[in-house]
Amino acid sequence: MFCNGQKKYRLSVAILIVVSLLICIYLIAFSCFFSKKQIQSAMIPVKVYSQYEILDGGKVVYHFDKDTISATGYFFNKYFFIPSCQGRIYADFDSTIWQNKYKDVNMEKLVQLHIDSLKTKYSQSKWIDGELSYYLKCHNASDEGFFQISQIALKEENLRDSTRKMLDSLKHLSHKSLKIVRHLEFVAISPSGKANRKQVEKLKHVGGNVFQLFSETLPEESCALSFHKSQALASMSIVPVLFDAKLDYFLGTTGTYSGEVDSLGLPHGHGEWLGFTDAAYYQGSWKHGKRDGFGFSVADKSQLRIGEWVLDKYKRERLVYSSDRIYGIDISKYQHVIKGKKYNIDWKRLRISHLGNISKKTINGDVNYPISFIYIKSTEGASLLNPFYRKDYVAARAHGYKVGSYHFFSTLTPATLQARQFLKNSYVKSGDLPPVLDVEPTKAQIQKMGGVYVLLSRMRIWLRMVEKETGKRPIIYVSQTFVNRYLSKATDIKQKYQVWIARYGEYKPDIKLVFWQLCPDGRVTGIRGHVDINVFNGYHDSFKQFISNLK
C-alpha cells in the first residue's frame, strides 16, 4: 500500500514537472520566438517632428530648423510572460535628438542670420508671385493646370505674409531675455483597417527610446513582442514600413519628393518635388523617376514652366486653339501680289478659316475665328515701302480693327535712317497698336554687320527713336531661335520691350510675350493665298486691358 502511494506521488510530481516545463517552453516561445506575420503586425513607423523655438520673455516669437526623423518601432509587452503592451513602442533613435545644438550659440548673430534668410525668402517669393501672376493673367479656367497654379499662387501669397510677420517679430526682439529651446513631437503611423489608410496618433515619451500611444491600447490586428525582441529588431531597422503607394523621401542630396511611386520606390504617377538649394518646385506627372506628362515648375529667378515634360525634359505648354482665344493677322504686299497678279482684300468678309499645315496643332471645334487685330508692313530698311500700306491701314481702321504698323529691319543700313524712314511713312495714331520692329537676320548677316552686339546696339537705336517720337513703346518681332541665341545678351531689351514670337510648332514659345505667330500658311476668308496667323497671349479680359492701355 505504502509503496503504491509513493509511486503515485512520484508520478504526480513528474507530471507536474513536465507540465511546468511545457508551460515554461511555451512562455519562452511566446516571448522570444515570433512568426514573420507577428513581427510585421508588431511593426509601426514612428516619426519625430523637431523644431527650435526662440523665446522672448518666455513667449515663442519664432521657430526654425524644422526636421522630421523617422524610425521603425515595434509594439512590446511590459512584462515578460503577460500580454501587457498598453500601446508601448520601442523605436531606436539616435541620442542627438535630445540635444540642443544651439545651446551655446551667439543669439544676436543667430537672429541676424535668420533675418537675412527671411529677406532672401521674401524676395524669392515676390519673384515667384510675379511669374504666377503673369501666367494667371494670360490664361483662364479652360487651360490645363490653371486651377493648380491658382492654388500655388494663394499658397505663395500666404507664405509671403507669414515671412513678413516673422521678419517683423525678429526685428523687434529685446535681445536681453532670449532663449532657444528644442520642441519635439512624437507620432506613430498605423493602418486604420479601412482601405489601408493611415492613422496618425500622438505618442508620449516614456523614457529613452520607449514611447506609448495616448490611447494606451494595442491597436486591433497588431501584435506585441517581448521588449528585448522589439529592441533588437528596432536597432536593425532602416526603412519605414509603407501601407500604400505614397511616401515622402529624399532624392539624393538635392531635394524631397512626396507622391506616388512604382514597385522600385521611384516617383511614378502624380507627385511633388522640392529642391533644397534653389527651392525649385515641381508638381505633376512622373514616370519611373522622371518628370513625364503634364506638370509645372517654378523656382527663384527662373521663368515658370508649365506644360508637357518628356523623360525629364521640358517641352513647353501645348496650346489648344479654340474660339475663346484672340486672333489676329499680319499682312504685306504679298497678300495683294501673287504670281504677278494683283488682288484686293475683301474687308467685310475677314474670318480665319484655317491654321495652316506647317506644324501640328490641337484644335477644339471648327476654325472660324473673328480677327481682333491686324499688323501691316509699312517700311523695310532705309528706302523700301509697302505700296499697299496706306490703303490697307485706312481700310482696316474703317472696318473697326485694331491696327498696328511694322518695320522690317535691315542689317545693311544705319538704324537712325531706318527709324526716320518708318516715322516718315507710317501711321501711329492714338489707339493704334504699338509699332513693331521685325528682326529676322540670318547668322551670316549678323556676322557680316559686325556681330550680335552690333545688331543689338542698332536695335536699341531704332527702338528709342521710335518710342521718343510716337510716345508708344515698340514691340520686337523675333523668332524663338533669336530669343535662345541672342536675346539673353541684351537683358535691357528683353526686360523693357514686349516680344512677338514667330514659332511654328505644337508648343507655346518659351518666353514672356504679347503675341505669337503660330503659322505662316494660314487661310483667311477675304484674302488670297497664305496669311500669317497670330494669337494674343491671353483671353478677352486681358486683351481689353491691353487695348485700354494704348495711348
Keywords, please?
27 strands; 12 helices; elongated; seven-stranded antiparallel sheet; 32% helix; 551 residues; eight-stranded mixed β-barrel; alpha+beta
Q: How helical, in percent, are the residues? A: 25-40%
- Principal-axis shape: elongated
What is the arithmetic mean of pLDDT?
A: 84
Any low-confidence stretches, pLDDT <50, length ≥5? 238-253
Rg, Cα atoms, Å: 36 Å
How much of the residues is beta strand, in percent? 25-35%
Largest sheet: 8 strands, mixed, barrel
> What distance lies between the first and last C-alpha atoms, to the nearest angstrom?
130 Å
Oligomer: single chain
Short description:
Helices cover 32% and strands 32% of the residues. The protein has 551 residues and is α+β, with helices and mostly antiparallel strands.
Helix and strand layout, with pairings?
Layout lengths: L1 H31 L3 H7 E14 L2 E17 L12 E4 L15 H32 L7 H26 L6 E14 L6 E10 L2 E4 L13 H10 L9 E6 L3 E7 L5 E9 L5 E7 L2 E9 L6 E6 L2 E4 L3 E2 L5 E5 L5 E2 L2 E2 L8 E4 L7 E2 L9 E8 L3 E2 L3 H10 L3 E7 L6 H11 L10 E3 L4 H7 L2 H19 L4 E5 H6 L5 H6 L1 E5 L12 E11 L5 E6 L3 H9 L3
Parallel strand pairs: 14-19, 15-20, 20-22, 22-23, 23-24, 24-25, 25-26
Antiparallel strand pairs: 1-2, 1-4, 2-3, 3-6, 4-5, 5-6, 7-8, 8-9, 9-10, 10-11, 11-12, 12-13, 15-27, 16-17, 18-26, 20-21, 26-27
Helix pairs in contact: 3-4, 7-9
Characterize the structure shown.
With about 550 residues, this protein is an alpha+beta fold. Helices cover about 30% and strands about 30% of the residues. The chain has helices at about 1-30, 35-40, 105-140, 145-170, 225-235, 390-400, 415-425, 445-450, 450-470, 480-485, 490-495, 540-550; strands at about 45-55, 60-75, 90, 180-190, 200-205, 210-215, 245-250, 255-260, 265-275, 280-285, 290-300, 305-310, 315, 320, 325-330, 335-340, 340, 350-355, 360-365, 375-380, 385, 400-410, 435-440, 475-480, 500, 515-525, 530-535. The strands form five sheets. Strands 15-20-22-23-24-25-26-27 form an eight-stranded mixed barrel. A hairpin with a 2-residue loop joins β10 and β11. The radius of gyration is 36 Å and the shape is elongated. The termini are far apart. Mean pLDDT is about 85; it is low at about 240-255.
